Amino acid sequence: MNAQNWIDKLGLEAHPEGGYFKEVYRNPSTIQVMEDGAKRNLATSIYFLLEGEQKSHFHQLKSDELWYFHAGGPVKIHIVEDEEYRTEILGLDLDRGQSPQVLIPRNSIFAAEVVDKNSFCLMGCMVNPGFDFKDFRMVTKNKLMLKIPEQKKIIEKFTLD
C-alpha cells in the first residue's frame, strides 16, 4: 500500500508538527505525575505517518515516547537530550543500525524525516504518561541554537520559525 492508502484506510488527519496521525488508544486510568499536580492518562497511542519531504518539526513532550515501525521505509529521528545531539533510525534493517522501536526520553527535543524521500513511514507512537497538548510545545530556532549551535543546518531544516 502507498501512503495515501494508509491515510485513507486508517482515517489519519494532519498533525500540527507535520505528517498525519490518529489516536487509537487512551488508557482511561489516570495518574497524578506532572510537576503542577495535573493528572494524565496512564498511556496513549497514535498512528503517525510521514511521507516524502514531510517533516516532524522539532518539538518537546513532558512524557516518554516510544516509536514503533509498522510499514514503509525507515525514518531518521533527530534527538537533542541534555544539550547533546544524536540520531536514531527507526526501521527493520538491524544490520544497518536500524531499530524497530526507538525511545524518545521525556523532555528531549526531537524531529524526524523519512530517509527515502520517495517513500513513507507508518509508525505507532506510545506516550507514557499519556499525551496531552498541554505537555507539547514546538521548539524555536533560537532555543536550539543555544543548545546545539554546531547543528545549524539541522535546526534550520526542522524548525518552523
Quick structural summary:
This protein is mainly β and 161 residues long.
Itemize the secondary structure elements and their pairings.
Elements: H1 3-10, E1 13-14, E2 20-26, E3 30-32, E4 39-41, E5 44-51, E6 55-61, E7 64-72, E8 75-81, E9 84-90, E10 101-104, E11 109-114, E12 120-128, E13 136-138, H2 141-147, H3 152-158
Antiparallel strand pairs: 1-2, 2-5, 3-4, 5-12, 6-11, 6-13, 7-10, 7-12, 8-9, 8-11
Structure, explained:
The protein is mainly beta and 161 residues long. The protein has one domain (3-158): Jelly Rolls (Sandwich), CATH 2.60.120.10. It has three helices and 13 strands. The protein has helices spanning 3-10, 141-147, 152-158; strands at 13-14, 20-26, 30-32, 39-41, 44-51, 55-61, 64-72, 75-81, 84-90, 101-104, 109-114, 120-128, 136-138. The strands form three sheets. The protein has a six-stranded antiparallel sheet with strand order 1-2-5-12-7-10, covered by helices on one side. It is globular. 34% of the residues are buried. The mean pLDDT is 95.
Rough outline: globular
Query: What is the CATH third-level topology name?
Result: Jelly Rolls
Largest sheet, in brief, is: 6 strands, antiparallel
Flag low-confidence runs.
none
Q: Care to count the β-strands?
A: 13
- For CATH, the homologous superfamily is named as Jelly Rolls
Distance between the termini: 34 Å
Assign the CATH architecture. Sandwich
Percent helix, as a range, is 10-25%
Number of helices: 3
Count of the domains: 1
